[in-house]
Amino acid sequence: MSVQLVFKSGELTALLEGEIDHHTAREVREEIDSAASQVKPHTLTLDFSGVQFMDSSGVGLILGRYKLVSMWGGQVCVANMPEKLEKIVSMAGIRNLCTMVKDVEEK
Question: At residue 107, does pLDDT exceed 90?
């Protein structure tokens, strides 16, 4: 699992690649939280285009970043969620908390 962080115009984008599970989520979470806490973006975009597998740890990753960014009035956008993973995200109620887009350009 890897994450590439890009900060531009008040928006932090985390390009996620690989598998998100119990073993990888902590490292990704720490990287995103460290950067987000420094720049306090108005929008944190989690780009899942490179994610092939995700278990409940991925849901926790999204919800935890939502809680963090909400502390300073920001929002979370979930982009490019693979179709096979959308069901997990929908059942967790993430659509009620975060903006969901098919492509980062749709925001």
Answer: no
CA distance 12 to 40: 9
Q: What is the pTM of this model?
A: 0.93
* 2-106, CATH topology level: Transcription Regulator spoIIAA (3.30.750)
3-state secondary structure 38-62: HHCCCEEEEEEEEEEEECHHHHHHH
Half-sphere exposure of 34 (CA within 13 A, CB side): 9
Spans of all domains in the chain: 2-106
**From CA 66, how far away is CA 74, in angstroms rounded?**
8
Residues 6+ apart with CB under 8 A from 71: none
Angle at 46 between CA 44 and CA 48, to 5 degrees: 170
Helices (H), 5-97: 22-39, 56-70, 83-91
Q: Which two tokens stand for residue 17?
A: 């690649």
